[in-house]
């Protein structure tokens, strides 16, 4: 499977910061509505892994999957970063905060 990288905005909201992933790119890499996944947060990286035993689910609709990472935990992770690099690689999505 190929790897794809994109750079996304880390958006500020009233409830904390948000990283929003959606649409065809998720589908292309096998992330469909209802799929279960797990999340690991490290110093500068969030890793999402498709996992039938995971405690999180891809939301959205059958024709438009969504992963909405938001809240105070994203604010703490993001620090002063305004953007992040997102690498789609099969059953793993790696999000690294940028400058």
Description:
There is one protein chain. Helices cover 12% and strands 56% of the residues. It is mainly beta and 99 residues long. The protein has one domain. It has a six-stranded antiparallel β-sheet with strand order 1-9-10-5-4-6, with no helix packed on it. The protein has a four-stranded antiparallel β-sheet with strand order 2-3-8-7. Strand 4 and strand 5 form a beta hairpin. The longest helix is centred in the C-terminal third of the chain and has 7 residues. The termini are far apart.
Largest beta-sheet details: 6 strands, antiparallel
Round the mean pLDDT to the nearest integer and report it.
Answer: 94
Which term fits the overall shape? Answer: globular
SS strand fraction: over 45%
Q: How far is the N terminus from the C terminus?
A: 29 Å
Short synopsis of the structure:
The protein is mainly beta.
List keywords for this structure.
mainly beta; 99 residues; globular; six-stranded antiparallel β-sheet; 2 helices; 12% helix
What's the arrangement of secondary structure elements?
Layout: E1 3-9, E2 11-13, E3 16-22, H1 24-28, E4 36-41, E5 45-50, E6 56-57, E7 59-61, E8 64-71, H2 72-78, E9 83-89, E10 92-97
Antiparallel strand pairs: 1-9, 2-3, 3-8, 4-5, 4-6, 5-10, 7-8, 9-10
